[in-house]
Every structure is written in structure tokens, then in C-alpha cells.
Amino acid sequence: MQYQIIKYGTDAYTASLNLRHETLRVPLGMDLFDGSYDDLSNEARYFHFGAFSDDGELLASVLGIPTSTKEVRIKQMVVSKTLQNQGVGKRLFMAFEAFLLNLGFKEFILHARMTAHGFYLNMGYQILGDKFQEVGLDHYKMRKTFFPSSD
């Protein structure tokens, strides 16, 4: 499996959109492409990252939105239904964090669905505040801060 950046506008980006739509929006009766919740017009400035099979098929993806020079908001982490609970998401997420750290980001923020917040707790994220509603589901705002090493 390969973990790498997904360039905006490529076939891999389209595959990521389709995976996000089918896995994250369709089960909620929503459409990623209709603009009612997701504004895809800004995605050219986001960081898109994916896990690919050896033959190039996109298996999982995640995106990050820079909110400052040191902070990024991570969203829409998705793993193909056939590969969930097999460590693909964890490996993708760790590779994405390393990628973002190499770019100089130190604080990562995300909104975790209640069904996924345990995953992020295990990845070292902390819950910030009370649960809230987003896309009709309960979420927690979570954060992980990386500090420069003192070597």
C-alpha cells in the first residue's frame, strides 16, 4: 500500500470525491456534489491525501484545511467499506500527520463523529468541549498539538 498526496483535479481526486460521497454522505441521505453542505469550490487549496493499492486504486482518503501557518483542520477521513477496521485508516492518518508536520503544522483540529471519536482518542487527540450536531450527527471537536523536539 502507498500513502501519498492526491493532486486536486486528477483522477485520484475524483476517486476521493466519489469515495467520500458514497461512504460519508449517501448513508445520511446527502449529496456531496449538490453544494448544500460541502463547498467543493475551495478544495484546490486543501491538502488531499490517500492510501492506494499497489495497482493504483484509491482505498482511503483524508483532507486537511490550513487555518493558519501552524494549524490545520482535518476532515472527511474515509476508508473503503471493504477495508474498514483493518488498520488502513490508522496507517493513512499517521502518514498524513507526518506529511503535515513536515510542512510545519503543529496543531491539528477535527470534528469526529461519535462513532469514530474513539479512533481519534487512540491517535492522541483530546476532546474539546461538549458534543454538537454536524450533518445531523453528534460530533466532538478534537485537537492534537505537536511541539518541537528539544534535541
Query: Element order, helices and strands?
Result: EHEEEHEHEE
CATH superfamily: Gcn5-related N-acetyltransferase (GNAT)
Which oligomeric form is depicted? single chain
Q: How many DSSP H or I helices?
A: 3
CATH topology: Aminopeptidase
Distance between the termini: 32 Å
Flag low-confidence runs. Answer: none
Structural class: alpha+beta
Mean pLDDT: 89
Shape designation: globular
Count of DSSP E strands?
7
SS strand fraction: 35-45%
**CATH class annotation:** Alpha Beta
Report the C-alpha radius of gyration, rounded. 15 Å
What does this structure look like?
There is one protein chain. This protein has helices spanning 11-25, 88-102, 117-122; strands spanning 2-6, 47-52, 58-66, 71-79, 107-113, 126-134, 137-145. It is an alpha+beta fold and 151 residues long. The protein has a single domain, classed as 3-Layer(aba) Sandwich (Aminopeptidase). It has a seven-stranded mixed beta sheet with strand order 1-2-3-4-5-7-6, sandwiched between helices. A hairpin with a 2-residue loop joins strand 6 (126-134) and strand 7. The longest helix has 15 residues, at 11-25.
